[in-house]
Write the structure tokens for this entry.
Amino acid sequence: MASTVTMSTVYVAKRNGECQHCGHRFFSSEPNPAPICYHCKSAGRVVETAEPVETPATAITYCGHVVDAPGFTQDSFTRAMARAFCDDLQVTPYHDGRHLVGCRNVYAYLVTRTSCDCKAGRVGTPCKHRAVLIAHLDVRAPHVRRSWATLNAARPARTAVAS
């Protein structure tokens, strides 16, 4: 038999609270109970927070994937990717997590996720070279790894069928 939750149960559960000062469990007439009970509130006691609450940063998305793009906002990342596509930037692995990013057979900058050797990157401004590298590392590379894993998983079955 399925249990049902009535509206009064939800109503009571929302209004139950626990005093953060004395630990007393109480019922509040307010829709969202205060962090302290009536007795502590009327005695003038206050609840001090140990540390300020940090709001989480909004995630930057690209092509439906969340990307780790330090120093970018959603708008600056989108604009940088548009410039990168217009310039047809290419990503080439280099050494120790660094990549060469630039136009084919013309120039390339040494780029990591957090820095770039271009004029904008040297002063810490988000640039198109970093944006295209981040998109490559967070969107394209995982997709390629999944594709290769799928192909390698199917390989024994194809070999058995062919023999």
Observations:
- DSSP finds five helices and seven strands in the chain.
